[in-house]
Amino acid sequence: MKIGKRKLYRIIMGSLFPVLYLITGSVFVSLMLATFFLTLLLAMEYERWKHPAVWEYITGKGKGIFREKSGKLTGDTYFILAVFIILFFPKDISIATLFFLVFGDAGSGIIGTKYGRTEIFPGKTLEGLAGGLFFNLIIGLIIYPFLGLSLPLLITGAIVASIVEVLPIKVNDNLSVGIITALIMVFL
Known about the structure:
The chain has 8 helices and 2 strands.
């Protein structure tokens, strides 16, 4: 149940950035929101390192939303760093990539945890890869009418994001998935 809470939290909070970008048509609002959350999370990271009891209190109140132990950045901090960087890519690629980052992570986490049996990398399963790809393809089809991207490019972005999610890259996947996906989509 804890993974479901974390992923639902990420879907709701993470979707704010591309939805605002779609609605306003301007990167400014999303960028300001990302700046606010990045500042807040960096302050939280500082407190977490300086006063571990504060982090224990937050994780106790978060009821399963936060899981990182003291000593490394939280997934949320890596995620907001990625959002901040991705917002500087072209608008439609930025929006698609942000949705892939949010929904692919949720799909791979939920499906991989519940049904994952075929490990392809440590902690990553074929079923998780399929779940992430399924969620990414669905969100890609939903946002397709609102973006000026071709369907093949959206499908490629969904596939790339899903593959990068399971690769054993040393950089946290909350940071690497979106940036690598956006770079490849720009290149294509």
